[in-house]
Automatic annotation (TrEMBL), chain B:
It comes from Nocardioides caeni. InterPro entries: ABC_transp_permease. GO terms for molecular function: transmembrane transporter activity. This is ABC transporter permease. It is found in: Cell membrane. Keywords: Cell membrane, Membrane, Transmembrane, Transmembrane helix. PANTHER family: ABC TRANSPORTER, PERMEASE PROTEIN (PTHR47089), GUANOSINE ABC TRANSPORTER PERMEASE PROTEIN NUPP (PTHR47089:SF1). Residues 1-42 are annotated as: Disordered. One of its GO terms (cellular component) is plasma membrane. It is a multi-pass membrane protein.
Length: 428, 442
């Protein structure tokens, strides 16, 4: 604890620029990861071959299995990681920042090395691993997109979890009553927007602290859905809680491409909606007049107001749209993953989506990548426990959260939120 | 509720509850009570004392403040939340819905069932939380009140931890992880150390508090050192803590009961269990007294100590605090350490008091998140948190009776709790609904 009495570094004012201590974090984090993998290679090396199965039976042509010797692969991975760390340190030393692609490449190599170690003598179903990651990430991606939109307009949305849960709940009920998953999907969007409306009502109209409204709304939605589940849904499961499911919808031609096809294009309609939503959100936010207004309202509401943009109305509409997007993610739970609603079935995924928003620096594409990363880590723990990897499942399940902490503290600790994020706007 | 808390009558614009009409308070007529217009005075006691001591029309001013001030808003918020909760109970009641179908021909039926459902629900709530009129002897009748106190203890402790962090401008959502780590640490000391109760119990409690402090302090340290947002870090630490404790509970030689395959530890030895407060016929144990001591300590810390002053200064305005020579980063670490110790004591309370049959991953029982609503309802004031903790403890105790005797899911309490906090956070909304005058300054 002796470190705490030292003067704290300047926290909020200055994002790190070239040559400043902030930029040092990337090589430090990379170095720590390299060291951990090296320790793994030195003390816990496992003999045998790791097999990566990358073929699916629908491919145009057969892709051979990739078989690598576990020990040698891990050793060469350590060397590669050390080179990456050195490159990062060199760049920082020259006053430049570590580029994102280097960090990404580093992560891919590190994961490959880890897999080669963990799967010694076993087979990793690469298609299943990646495809499952995308399926798991769907609610996170929709949640993160909604979060990005809301925060870009200046409203912190902690209620993503509540929106997901309420969306799942509405999709289950209306999907059953209407008898079509599309009905459930629309209901989920309305449910997400409804939670957003309440959030906006308190946060925009009544200036209540947005973080608090969000947290409380999550509790409220858990309470309402669990209460109604106990009172109604569990009593009449056939008439209220057995929604028709979206089935897998392989895209012809695209779905037959090796590796990419089964991973990306043999999914449900909601996954394709997700691709569209990410592209559309990114385009709308950066390339349209509407997006400019949203960002203006989030960065400098007063200036936006001065040029005639209706600040609070823009915030409301953006928030409602964001809520509807999150609602689609919620629908995934009851229309794709599980065939009925269960109490607190989101399991805090909204908080992970929130982490993805911050991890992704309030950018729709980066936030989507972060959400995919979380989906991958979760699915990886499942796959590894199936093949019996020598890592306790608790530690694998812990991984996404540890990675988030490292990322938030180490890599993006100084990332800048929209300037007016969380600040209610009062005219005058 | 908060009525017996003199501090809660004061409204202060603070970070959590930006009070929109605060500028209006400055327009108080000069003839007004001196204590009323100094909303920004840090020391509440002075202003309340001044209000009481003032010679001119002490009652008129006090009444006006009660009618329009935050106490009234708090009470009305509770009323509103209960009304919404009642509507939910009625809307899902089979008899009420059936009689609704023929309300035109026999409206009497409908109102009969409405009355039945409401009196049944709240009668059960009261029976389960305060006084059981159906009991045969005094001990059975008063037992619900002791259950309320038992449930209040950890809510107050964890609420203090969250509230203390609030006062320094930090949002501690990590109650769950802190409680789990603390419970596991206390359980580990209780199981693995063999000592007389006079040493064993304090040692286990200390270990728990220390574990909670470290887990929260980690978030404070990361915030101070790297600027990592404490909301994200504490949420993530909840999951990390959960899996850590899960792992320890599923590993022989760590915390798992010998020879067992379940993720659960063995029962706590007698010498490390908090003794019952009122004899063995009641479940209430000394944890509640510990909670009261913690309230007193936190009140002293916040209002009388130099460190508490730094906490509040940083919470009001970190830039100003930094400019006046306060080490903001160190303050973040200290406040999270103390807050984590308080939340940790709630975990200790569960393991060594309420459920000494063994450590499990569910030992937090949702208290870590309930604590947030407790702290918000108590407006982050120690005495307010005491009152809020008692209220929520009563709701919790009563909800079980409601569930057993009326078949109403216990989650109705979550709905009521969160609505109370929502309404309390928006005083203008509550005033508008009840058509109260806008300001105490009319």
């Amino acid at each position: 604890m002796s470190t705490v009495s030292a003067p704290a570094p300047e926290l909020d004012e200055t994002p790190p620029t070239a040559g400043q201590p902030g930029a040092l974090k990337a090589p430090i984090v990379l170095g720590v990861v390299t060291m951990l993998v090296a320790l793994l290679a030195a003390f816990k090396a496992r003999s045998g071959d790791a097999t990566f199965r990358i073929a699916a039976d629908t491919d145009f042509f057969e892709v051979p299995e990739l078989v690598v010797p576990s020990t040698a692969t891990l050793a060469s991975v350590v060397v590669l990681l050390a080179v990456g760390t050195a490159a990062s340190a060199l760049l920082v030393n020259r006053g430049r920042r570590t580029p994102l692609w280097l960090i990404g490449l580093f992560a891919v190599v590190a994961v490959f090395g880890f897999l080669a170690w963990a799967a010694a003598g076993e087979t990793i179903p690469v298609i299943g691993l990646l495809g499952g990651s995308i399926a798991l990430a769907v609610p996170l991606v929709f949640g993160a997109l909604g979060g990005v939109l809301g925060e870009r307009a200046g409203v912190v949305n902690i209620a993503i979890d509540g929106q997901l849960l309420f969306g799942a709940f509405a999709a289950a009920i209306f999907g059953t009553v209407i008898g079509s998953p599309w009905g459930g999907l629309v209901a989920a969007m309305c449910a997400g927007a409804l939670v957003a409306l309440v959030l906006g009502f308190f946060a925009i109209s009544y200036f209540v602290d947005q973080v608090i409204v969000g947290v409380v709304l999550n509790v409220l939605v858990i309470g309402i859905t669990s209460f109604l589940f106990g009172q109604l849904l569990s009593e009449h499961p056939e008439s209220l809680n057995s929604p028709e499911q979206f089935s897998r919808l392989p895209i012809p031609v695209l779905g037959d491409i090796p590796v990419i096809g089964p991973v990306l294009f043999r999914q449900t309609i909601l996954v394709y909606l997700m691709y569209g939503a990410v592209a559309l959100t990114a385009f709308a936010l950066y390339r349209t007049r509407w997006g400019l207004r949203v960002r203006a309202v989030g960065e400098h509401p007063k200036a936006a107001d001065t040029v005639g943009i209706k600040v609070n109305r823009t915030r409301y509409t953006t928030l409602l749209l964001a809520g509807a997007i999150v609602g689609v993610g919620g629908a995934t739970y009851t229309l794709v993953s599980v065939s009925q609603f269960g109490e607190e079935m989101t399991g805090g995924a909204g908080y992970i989506a929130l982490a993805a928003v911050i991890f992704g620096r309030w950018d729709p594409v980066r936030a989507t990548l972060a959400a995919l990363l979380f989906g991958f880590a979760t699915n990886l723990s499942g796959v590894l426990s199936v093949i019996g990897a020598p890592v306790p499942s608790q530690f694998m399940l812990m991984l996404p959260y540890v990675v988030t902490i490292i990322a938030v503290a180490g890599l993006v600790g100084h990332s800048r939120a929209p300037a007016a994020d969380g600040v209610p706007y009062r005219k005058g | 509720m908060t009525g017996d808390d003199p501090l809660s009558k004061r409204r202060e614009p603070d970070d959590e509850h930006p009070i929109v009409e605060a500028p209006g308070a400055a327009e108080v007529a000069p003839s007004h009570l001196p204590g009323e217009d100094d909303d920004l005075t840090p020391d509440e006691d002075v202003s309340v004392a001044a209000a009481a001591a003032t010679p001119q029309s002490p009652f008129a001013g006090a009444l006006r403040q009660i009618a329009t001030g935050s106490t009234m808003v708090s009470l009305l918020s509770i009323v509103l939340a209960v009304v919404v909760g009642s509507i939910m109970i009625l809307a899902t009641d089979e008899d009420v819905r059936d009689s609704m179908g023929y309300i035109g021909s026999r409206p009497g039926d409908f109102f009969f069932y409405v009355r039945e459902a409401i009196t049944g629900a709240y009668g059960a709530l009261f029976r389960g939380s305060v006084w059981n009129g159906e009991g045969t002897d005094f001990e059975t009748r008063i037992r619900p009140l002791t259950e309320t106190l038992k449930f209040s203890g950890p809510l107050i402790l964890a609420g203090l931890g969250v509230g203390l962090a609030f006062r320094a401008g930090l949002f501690n959502i990590g109650g769950r992880g802190q409680m789990l780590l603390a419970g596991a640490a206390a359980g580990w000391v209780a199981i693995s150390v063999d000592a007389p109760a006079a040493i064993h119990l304090p040692l286990a409690i200390l270990a728990g508090a220390a574990a909670g402090a470290l887990w929260a302090g980690l978030a404070g340290l990361l915030k101070a050192r790297t600027g990592a947002h404490e909301v994200i870090v504490t949420i993530m630490l909840n999951y990390v803590g959960y899996y850590l404790v899960f792992y320890a509970l599923s590993k022989q030689g760590w915390l798992q009961a010998p020879g067992s395959a379940n993720p659960k530890s063995e029962a706590m030895p007698e010498s490390a269990v908090l003794p019952n407060l009122l004899g063995d016929r009641f479940n209430l144990h000394w944890g509640f007294v510990g909670a009261l001591v913690a309230v007193a300590f936190t009140w002293w810390l916040l209002n009388k100590s130099a460190m508490g002053f730094r906490f509040r200064a940083v919470g009001e305005n970190p830039e100003a605090a930094r400019a006046s020579g306060i080490n903001v980063g160190a303050t973040y670490v200290y406040v999270m350490l103390i807050a984590g110790a308080l939340v940790g004591l709630a975990g200790v309370n569960q393991v060594l008091g309420t459920a000494p049959s063994g450590v499990t991953v569910d030992l937090d029982a949702g208290i870590g998140f309930d604590a947030i609503t407790v702290a918000l309802l108590g407006r982050s004031r120690p005495l307010g948190i005491l009152a809020a903790g008692l209220l929520f403890g009563a709701l919790k105790a009563g909800s079980f009776t409601m569930s057993v005797s009326e078949g109403i899911p216990v989650e109705i309490v979550l709905v009521i709790q969160s609505l109370i906090v929502l309404f309390i956070a928006a005083p203008p909304l509550v005033r508008a609904i009840f058509r109260l005058p806008k300001e105490a300054t009319a």
